[in-house]
Design goal:
Largest sheet: 6 strands, parallel
CATH class of the largest domain: Alpha Beta
Order of helices and strands: EHHEHEHEHEEHEHEHEEHEH
CATH architecture of the largest domain: 3-Layer(aba) Sandwich
Number of strands: 11
Shape: elongated
Number of domains: 2
Strand order of the largest sheet: 8-7-6-10-9-11
CATH superfamily of the largest domain: SPOUT methyltransferase, trefoil knot domain
Strand content: 15-25%
Helix content: 25-40%
Length: 255
């Protein structure tokens, strides 16, 4: 089995380029790093293109390697060239971006309004998947297929559909579906006091710095908040989104 050691090898340069959004879009693939997530891919969560394994980890991942047809074995320096983690687990999968159909709003969904931090975006995707929100609209957000978002989603990116839309595109679909828009806002109604929800709604989580945008506030049907002590003005976007999602699904009787 050939072992690639040069960081200038074409396969290494291709894989490394996928750490940048423009090259991910060009190839329509992205990287999944770490044994847990790669195992999910190999088991069918995503379509595997190429498996990259560090030479010193070959025996550890022999069971995964045996299931893959396109395996590239790399020396330490070559592997580190494509890895985006400080302490690598020695295995990375290049997977095909899913073909996501046009958004058809038929059930509650999530709207992320300017979430730029990859860690927060990944956390929200992870929780959305965990509690049962499949559709996630992204307006001016970080790339959901960036390495940090993929890691932070802990596999949630495999089981949700992310739709990059403009405000106009979203509002057109919301109007067509007869959906309501709920925004997370500190001046809203206590989420724990809600007794019932509309059949179809989009929950809006705003940006880390400025919250929900004015254009979204103007279209909102309801504002909801998490109660907190007066000395705190806000919570981390990923944390607040997670708590609200769980409570809304609890009100719906789904968890």
């Amino acid at each position: 089995m050939e072992i690639i050691t040069s960081v200038n090898n074409e396969k290494v340069k291709h894989a490394a380029s996928l750490n940048e959004k423009k090259y991910r879009r060009m190839s329509e693939t992205f990287l999944v790093e770490g044994s847990k997530l790669v195992r999910e891919v190999v088991c069918g969560a995503m379509e595997l293109v190429t498996l990259y394994v560090q030479q010193s980890y070959l025996s550890k991942y022999a069971d995964i390697v045996s299931k893959c047809s396109d395996v590239v074995v790399l020396g330490e320096s070559a592997f580190n060239k494509i890895s985006s983690t400080v302490t690598s687990q020695g295995i990375i999968a290049e997977v095909k971006m899913p073909e996501i159909p046009e958004l058809d709003i038929t059930e509650p969904f999530i709207i992320l309004d300017g979430i730029s931090d990859p860690g927060n975006l990944g956390t929200i995707i992870r929780t959305a998947s965990a509690v049962g929100y499949r559709d996630i609209v992204l307006i001016g957000c970080a790339d959901p297929y960036s390495p940090k978002v993929v890691r932070s989603s802990s596999g949630g990116i495999f089981y949700t559909d992310c739709y990059p839309l403009s405000y106009d595109e979203l509002f057109e679909k919301v109007e067509k579906a007869g959906a309501k828009i709920y925004i997370a806002d500190m001046k809203g109604t206590n989420v724990f006091s809600l007794k019932e929800l509309d059949k179809i709604y989009g929950l809006v989580i705003g940006s880390e710095g400025s919250g929900v945008s004015l254009v979204m506030r103007e279209r909102a049907n309801m504002a909801i908040k998490l109660p907190m002590k007066s000395q705190m003005e806000s919570l981390n976007a990923g944390v607040s989104a997670s708590v609200i999602m769980y409570e809304l699904k609890n009100i719906e009787g789904e968890i």
